Amino acid sequence: MGDDFVTPERVRFTQAVRRLIDVALTAEDVTEARLHDAADTTERLAAELGEAPTGAPTRAVRTRQEMHHDDYLPRSPLVGDVSPMAPPLAYEFRDGRIHAHGVFHAAYEGPPGYVHGGWIALSFDEVLGMTNIGSGHPGMTGKLSVRYRRPTPLHVDVRFEGWVEQVDGKRIVAKGSLHAGDELTAEAEGLFVIIGPARALEYFGEEAYRRVPPGPPDPLP
Fold it and tell me: What is the DSSP letter of 111?
């Protein structure tokens, strides 16, 4: 994907869409007339930029191919700068561990005032996967176990930490933690499996087979 896709204006546009999502979930004192006008505007913008979300149930389809991790991570649902679904969390890989932090707002709510457990599980899957990439052992998730210790609040800074616990041939065990402030709210352990071109071909088809690079794995962007 590269720099030609992740541009300052696309990042700005994504931030505006995130704000719109929050407003759609939280705006209360708004009339039906204003909602009608807002829907018209949103539909028009969608039609101008891509497939219109009206009429037949068709949606825009991405045609760009992923060749490296820096093609995928900008669209990540957790850390993606150009993904409206992402909070996004900022991250860095240091001392053999992933450190990610940020804020979950209204779009991620489960119990009133707290993050949905499904989003926490998704976040751990992404954090541990990135941990494996940073450690030079990228793999597919085989099993993910999450222990929810306490509800994780919305609208406060949270931080994830992930590390590789064990590598045994093609099997990787990674672990992670989630804190809200000084409080541990969840822990996770994942089993990941390294796949080669043959398994990629079986799972994803010819395009994926050609995209599995020989030699060392791509680093984190």
Answer: S
Q: CA 8 from chain center: how many Å?
A: 19
pLDDT in tens, 55-109: 554 566 666 665 566 778 999 999 999 999 999 999 999 999 999 999 999 999 9
Contacts of 13 (CB under 8 A, 6+ apart): none
CA proximity to 132, closest of 158, 170, 103: 170
DSSP designation for 160: E
Amino acid at position 93, single letter: F
- Do 137 and 164 meet the contact criterion of CB atoms below 8 Å apart? yes
φ/ψ of 168, rounded to 5, equals -130, 95
The identity of residue 12, as a single letter, is R
Nearest to 117 by CA among 157, 78, 152: 152
Helix or strand (DSSP H, E) at 113: none
How many angstroms separate the CA atoms of 53 and 161, rounded? 38
CA distances to 60, 153, 167 from 192, in Å: 31, 29, 9
pTM for this prediction: 0.87
